[in-house]
């Protein structure tokens, strides 16, 4: 099946390239340009719209139904930051076999201390969004000596990267056992020796500094305990840039937990959203690579539409230009997670595509007017 998408503005994952045609065949982008010739079995009128790479959410948690919901909003790949082994195997099969759900990459089982975050949430979710049959004992890390075996087990599980948790519960309003700096460093070294990237869950400035000391590749959140415009955020942001570490933004997560009622799972104290915005602005000014991610769950932020909200927050409160935010949800995620076949629109890459009415490079709210979504070249019914 050869399809020509005619006359749309093209955002190629990094830049707006003007009005052009894109030809899709056998699941890949076959040609780009108004001179892209040859026959076409079908034509799609893109006039007045913008064609983008499928969006990539750089921080989610996948549950049953999540991948289908994500694809409805043009999120064609999710980076899953923790999923229990049994449901993860199910989601992987679904994404491999079908094109009506988003693709995913996953850390699999998260690395945390015994009793550490997020073990406190598992019991609360069992029976609601977690089937009791899917809940297994979480493999935790007791100390540095355990690191090599833990990483080896994650590789056997099929993990695409390693996620470690450095979190004493401060932002959750609880007191949790936290991973030691020595264990964080040992896990990072073992993962790097095995060829895995390492992403750290750290949501205070002190925890982020421990992650940086350990040598991680990315932070799964901005920090949220330092007041906006505090010089400490600027200093930490400069260190993040100097070490070449990326940061997943998750403003939609902090916005969501600031409005939850006290006592709900994962709630934070009001004010953390403003602090997170301050950290994000410091990181942006420092030139840190930013990846758009939501921390989507079955609750809030939601899969798919939550990433649209994240981009609105990045261009509003966060101060990013629209093209910067769109790159943070496409090519930047692909680059940092080694997804060389997606995140851009160019010949030979996967035809994971999103066509919207309007111009999101001027106003990202245009992403809400989805005209068509393709996953591996298969157009989704709407």
Automatic annotation (TrEMBL):
Domain of life the protein comes from: Bacteria
Gene3D superfamilies (UniProt xref): Amidohydrolase, Urease, subunit C, domain 1
InterPro entries attached to this UniProt entry: Amidohydro-rel, Metal-dep_hydrolase_composite, Metal_Hydrolase, Metallo-dep_Hydrolase
Domain Amidohydrolase-related: 50-377
Protein name as it appears in the record: Amidohydrolase family protein
């Amino acid at each position: 099946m050869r399809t020509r998408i005619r006359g749309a503005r093209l955002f190629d994952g990094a830049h707006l390239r003007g009005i052009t045609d894109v030809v899709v065949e056998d699941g890949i982008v076959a040609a780009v340009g108004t001179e892209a010739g040859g026959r076409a079995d079908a034509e799609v009128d893109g006039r007045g719209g913008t064609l983008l790479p499928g969006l990539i959410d750089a921080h989610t948690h996948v549950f049953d139904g999540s991948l289908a919901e994500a694809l409805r909003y043009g999120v064609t790949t999710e980076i899953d930051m923790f999923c229990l082994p049994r449901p993860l195997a199910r989601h992987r099969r679904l994404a491999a076999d079908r094109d009506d759900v988003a693709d995913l990459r996953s850390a699999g089982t998260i690395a945390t201390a015994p009793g550490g975050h997020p073990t406190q949430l598992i019991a609360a979710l069992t029976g609601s969004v977690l089937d009791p049959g899917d809940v297994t004992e979480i493999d935790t890390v007791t100390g540095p000596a355990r690191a090599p075996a833990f990483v080896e087990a994650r590789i056997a599980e099929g993990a695409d990267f390693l996620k470690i948790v450095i979190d004493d519960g401060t932002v959750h309003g609880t007191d949790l056992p936290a991973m030691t700096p020595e264990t964080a460093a040992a896990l990072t070294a073992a993962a790097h020796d095995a060829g895995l990237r390492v992403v750290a869950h750290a949501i205070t400035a002190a925890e982020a500094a421990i992650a940086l000391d350990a040598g991680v590749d990315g932070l799964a959140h901005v920090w949220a305990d330092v007041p906006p415009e505090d010089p400490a955020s600027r200093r930490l942001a400069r260190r993040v840039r100097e070490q070449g570490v990326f940061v997943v933004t998750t403003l939609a997560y902090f916005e969501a937990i600031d409005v939850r009622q006290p006592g709900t799972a994962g709630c934070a104290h009001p004010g953390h959203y403003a602090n997170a915005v301050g950290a994000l602005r410091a990181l942006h000014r420092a030139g840190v690579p930013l990846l758009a991610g939501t921390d989507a769950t079955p609750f809030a932020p939601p899969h798919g539409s939550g990433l649209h909200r994240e981009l609105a927050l990045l261009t509003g409160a966060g101060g990013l230009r629209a093209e910067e935010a769109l790159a943070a949800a496409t090519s930047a995620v692909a680059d940092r997670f080694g997804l060389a076949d997606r995140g851009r629109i160019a010949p030979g890459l996967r035809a994971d595509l999103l066509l919207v009415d309007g111009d999101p490079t001027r106003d990202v709210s245009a992403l809400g007017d989805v005209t068509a979504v393709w996953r591996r070249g298969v157009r989704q019914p709407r």
